[in-house]
Every structure is written in C-alpha cells, then in structure tokens.
Amino acid sequence: MKLIFTGDGKGKTCSAVGLALRAWGQGKKVLFISFLKDALRSGEFKAINLLSSSDLVFFSFGRRCPYEENEDCCPGKCECIVLPSNIEEDDYDIINKGLEIAEKEILSELWDVVVLDEIVNVYNLFPRFKIDIMRLLKNIPDKTDIVFTGRNCPPELLDLVDLVSEIKNVKHPFNEGIKAKRGIDY
Ligand code: ATP
Ligand code: MG
C-alpha cells in the first residue's frame, strides 16, 4: 500500500513513526528515512536505536544542527531545518545521497515497509528532485508498503497513492511563540 500523511497540523511524522513501530511489532522489516531535518536529535531516532533491531532501521539525510551541544537549542529554532529561505549547496548533495539510498533499498525488496519522512517537502522545495521522487513512487515493489510525509502534498503525488490523511492545524503553541518541546515535537 502507498500512504501519504500531509497537512499543516502536527502529527505527520508521529503517525509515520507509529506505523513503523506497529509494522515492526507485526514482524515486518521497516526502514525509516528522514530528510531535511536533523533527525539524529529526535526521540524517534533515539528510540529506534535503543530497540537495536536490524528489522527497524533509521537513516537521516537532514542537515546537522550546528549547536548540538546547546541543550536550549531545538529543531524548531535553529538552522537545522531546511527552509525555502536557507537552502545551501550541501543540502542538494545530502538529499541526492538519501534519494539514491532510498531507491536502492526499496528496489532491493529487503524491506516490507519504507517511510520517507518529509519527502513531500523535498518535492516542493527542490524541483530538480521531482523526477526522482516520482520515479521512486511509481516503481515501488508490490511487496513493499511506502509512507510519504510532508506538508502541501501536490495532486500529482496524491494521485499515485492508495491512502491520504490530511492533518489540519486547529491550534499550535508555535503560533503563540512557544518553541518546540523535547519529547513532544522532537
Ligand atoms: P510531528 O513531527 O510532531 O509529527 P509533523 O511531522 O506533522 O509534526 P512538520 O511539518 O514535520 O510536522 O513539522 C515538525 C515541527 O513543526 C514539529 O516541531 C511540530 O510540532 C511543528 N509543527 C507541526 N505543525 C505545526 C503548525 N501547524 N504550526 C507550527 N508548527 C507546527
Ligand atoms: Mg514531520
């Protein structure tokens, strides 16, 4: 099955992590690949590593946080999220590497479930990768379930999948100036 979690509300990545854990609990082999953000600081990365199973693997192809040592720094605050306003040349290389590995792993048919977290944002922010992401989605093996996440999913991606959930923002403390919270937002 092909799934997309999109929308402007909180919960897309949390849902994908929940699905990954659920699938792993059912004996599936699960690969979680994160793009754009510094996922190495996220609770989901730490949790999956604590489980230390070769059947539940997490790769991060985001931008590393320059202030990692600073406990006050959070992913909602510093430059470790790739945004339209701060794209750097290195981002292209990291994303390109991530997409190559994602495609190779998917086509290997080693994995029952593959999550590509924030891949919709890659699609929207980096037009040069659109063709690669489309090809990847069109060539998913029958045995593999794939999950895409990210805001503002365009219709051409929605058309290619079986299930779409849109998470709507009703209220978010960020809009009151409150920064991301460890254990809730990352
Ligand atoms: P989560 O990782 O918590 O499931 P998400 O994947 O749905 O969130 P993203 O668009 O990837 O959301 O953004 C991740 C960060 O942005 C999180 O810290 C999240 O709390 C925050 N966020 C999510 N929705 C909103 C919103 N509507 N307004 C402001 N910040 C938001
Ligand atoms: Mg997310």
Keywords:
186 residues; Rossmann fold; 6 helices; 18% strand; binds adenosine-5'-triphosphate; binds magnesium ion
Task: Enumerate the strands of the largest sheet in spatial order, edge to edge or round the barrel.
Answer: 3-2-4-5-1-6
- Ligands present: adenosine-5'-triphosphate, magnesium ion
What is the domain tally? 1
Mean pLDDT: 93
Order of helices and strands: EHEHEHEHHEHE
Q: What is the CATH superfamily?
A: P-loop containing nucleotide triphosphate hydrolases
Number of strands: 6
Q: How would you describe this structure to a colleague?
A:
The protein has 186 residues and is α/β, with parallel strands linked by helices. It has a single domain (2-167), classed as P-loop containing nucleotide triphosphate hydrolases (Rossmann fold, 3-Layer(aba) Sandwich). The protein is built from 6 helices and 6 strands; from the N terminus they run βαβαβαβααβαβ. It has helices spanning 12-25, 43-51, 89-108, 119-125, 130-138, 155-158, and strands at 2-6, 30-36, 56-62, 113-117, 145-149, 163-166. The protein has a 6-stranded parallel beta sheet with strand order 3-2-4-5-1-6, with helices on both faces. Strand 2, helix 2 and strand 3 (56-62) form a beta-alpha-beta unit. The longest helix is centred in the middle third of the chain and has 20 residues, at 89-108. It is globular and about 45 Å long. Residues 12-13, 118, 149 line the site of magnesium ion.
